[in-house]
């Protein structure tokens, strides 16, 4: 019974998850998540893969709110990779049309929050209605001062890094060290903590440059089931890590 009450009070997770205790130690400035396992989550429940994608998208809102409350500055979520075009066309169609279709239902919540939304990734292949939604979201949330939610949609590191070098060279900028490339990347800050859900132990072409000194956290939980409790567990683990950057700590 108590468990049930706690679960239903998810919105007030701070009370149960010790948000203040987490905040006493270093909170990652930039959290990146590989949202994996939507399909497996759905399969386990006898549902179509698309149901997993829908639930996964809803979960982004939940976790973004928790990150905002925690004072995380950037949350970068991997929602569609440059490789995901290889999937069956009905699945790709669903992923490409769902945001535009579902947005009107959630508009008030999104615009009423303090979360700033930014698209990161390739813009040359996405359909015009998706690009319009992105432009609108970026414009309408631009004065929000909380978490910046970066949605990696048609994102791949190889493409990101390649276009960054190309842009730098066109502008006559010589890249001499890792930091010089950041202004030309889509994701312009290094990652502190990278979480991948659903048990796979790989990066799948995500934030290769930015994750150079990131701490990694892998969990078997499928993305739609990843909740505030798991988030706080990942952050607690991060807070115990010793980040040496090649040097020696006292
Ligand atoms: C992640 O879930 C979402 C996308 C890649 C679009 P998956 O669709 O990869 O789910 P699994 O890995 O097949 O379970
Ligand atoms: C990575 O997940 C891409 C996203 C989460 C958007 P995948 O499910 O596509 O990765 P692989 O194919 O297992 O490496
Ligand atoms: Mg997957």
UniProtKB/TrEMBL annotation:
<keyword id="KW-0808">Transferase</keyword>
<feature type="binding site">
    <location>
        <position position="41"/>
    </location>
    <ligand>
        <name>substrate</name>
    </ligand>
</feature>
<feature type="active site" description="Proton acceptor">
    <location>
        <position position="84"/>
    </location>
</feature>
<keyword id="KW-0479">Metal-binding</keyword>
<feature type="binding site">
    <location>
        <position position="49"/>
    </location>
    <ligand>
        <name>substrate</name>
    </ligand>
</feature>
<feature type="binding site">
    <location>
        <position position="85"/>
    </location>
    <ligand>
        <name>substrate</name>
    </ligand>
</feature>
<dbReference type="GO" id="GO:0016094">
    <property type="term" value="P:polyprenol biosynthetic process"/>
</dbReference>
<feature type="binding site">
    <location>
        <position position="215"/>
    </location>
    <ligand>
        <name>Mg(2+)</name>
    </ligand>
</feature>
<dbReference type="InterPro" id="IPR018520">
    <property type="entry name" value="UPP_synth-like_CS"/>
</dbReference>
<dbReference type="GO" id="GO:0000287">
    <property type="term" value="F:magnesium ion binding"/>
</dbReference>
<comment type="similarity">
    <text>Belongs to the UPP synthase family.</text>
</comment>
<feature type="binding site">
    <location>
        <position position="196"/>
    </location>
    <ligand>
        <name>substrate</name>
    </ligand>
</feature>
<comment type="function">
    <text>Catalyzes the condensation of isopentenyl diphosphate (IPP) with allylic pyrophosphates generating different type of terpenoids.</text>
</comment>
<feature type="binding site">
    <location>
        <position position="36"/>
    </location>
    <ligand>
        <name>Mg(2+)</name>
    </ligand>
</feature>
<feature type="active site">
    <location>
        <position position="36"/>
    </location>
</feature>
<feature type="binding site">
    <location>
        <position position="53"/>
    </location>
    <ligand>
        <name>substrate</name>
    </ligand>
</feature>
<dbReference type="InterPro" id="IPR001441">
    <property type="entry name" value="UPP_synth-like"/>
</dbReference>
<feature type="binding site">
    <location>
        <begin position="81"/>
        <end position="83"/>
    </location>
    <ligand>
        <name>substrate</name>
    </ligand>
</feature>
<dbReference type="Pfam" id="PF01255">
    <property type="entry name" value="Prenyltransf"/>
</dbReference>
<feature type="binding site">
    <location>
        <begin position="37"/>
        <end position="40"/>
    </location>
    <ligand>
        <name>substrate</name>
    </ligand>
</feature>
<dbReference type="GO" id="GO:0045547">
    <property type="term" value="F:ditrans,polycis-polyprenyl diphosphate synthase [(2E,6E)-farnesyl diphosphate specific] activity"/>
</dbReference>
<comment type="subunit">
    <text>Homodimer.</text>
</comment>
<dbReference type="InterPro" id="IPR036424">
    <property type="entry name" value="UPP_synth-like_sf"/>
</dbReference>
<feature type="binding site">
    <location>
        <position position="87"/>
    </location>
    <ligand>
        <name>substrate</name>
    </ligand>
</feature>
<protein>
    <recommendedName>
        <fullName>Isoprenyl transferase</fullName>
        <ecNumber>2.5.1.-</ecNumber>
    </recommendedName>
</protein>
<keyword id="KW-0460">Magnesium</keyword>
<feature type="binding site">
    <location>
        <begin position="202"/>
        <end position="204"/>
    </location>
    <ligand>
        <name>substrate</name>
    </ligand>
</feature>
